[in-house]
Model the fold of this input.
Amino acid sequence: MSSEPTDPRDKHADEFAPESQEQPGLTEDMRTTPDHGEETYRGAGRLEGRKALITGGDSGIGRAVAIAFAREGADVAIAHMPEEIEDADDTVRLIADAGRLGVSFAGDLREERFATSIVTDTVNQLGGLDILVLNAAYQKDRESLETIETDEFDRVFKTNLYAMLYSARAAVPHLQPGSSIIVTASIQAFNPSPALIDYAMTKAAQVAFVKALAQELGPKGIRVNAVAPGPVWTPLIPATGWDGEKVEKFGQDTPLGRAGQPAELAGAYVYLASEAASYVSGAVLPVTGGKGL
Done:
């Protein structure tokens, strides 16, 4: 693998095939396949022997993080929706290809029992839990505030906030000093779009959660941080409900002129989970293509 620097503007495509999907989006149905680092990520043993749980680990950023963690030496459990089983199976296969133990749990994280059970199941099947990545999320394009249906509002908040709280609450008793919790927040927490108003609200709440929990768990030696992605090409994007032109031009409003790929996020999670970030807690790490928080 070459160590020569690449021009970040040209590293990946700056346009996508116009496409749409129903929620939840699936990798197999995407016309432009995301790069999760399958062919490019090289590990260096930075997470050797760790045990990780990633919610929404079947595709997109979650899959990229699962690949990176496994190649860095961690065993990895992922949680996903039942209809995402094919994506999840592919991710578990990639974890196994890295020589690590991979397991998956299918269910709806909005259900407290499932969001809690994935923690105990991870501990039982992997032999512990050192890294919790709270990544699962739901978003949908909104025409206006007055047209948001209550069921949709509930779905966004229960997926992005309730589920996160359920899993984190269950995980804390299992985490030892040196453990790490990482939340996938968003640039939307700081620079919200009207068409994603409810999603942006949950992402702002996640940032508050990270900062408060970092203060609570710091004395126990447990670090809590967030990654704030900008526009990243994942199955969630064609499933958001945007028109073909918006999908095609997705991410072109960044200073780098394109959307990010999931593989370009993985290193941020590895860093925050690793000993290199031993003095980093309560931080929000932006990976936005230059868009300001």
Q: What stands out?
A: The longest strand covers residues 223-229.
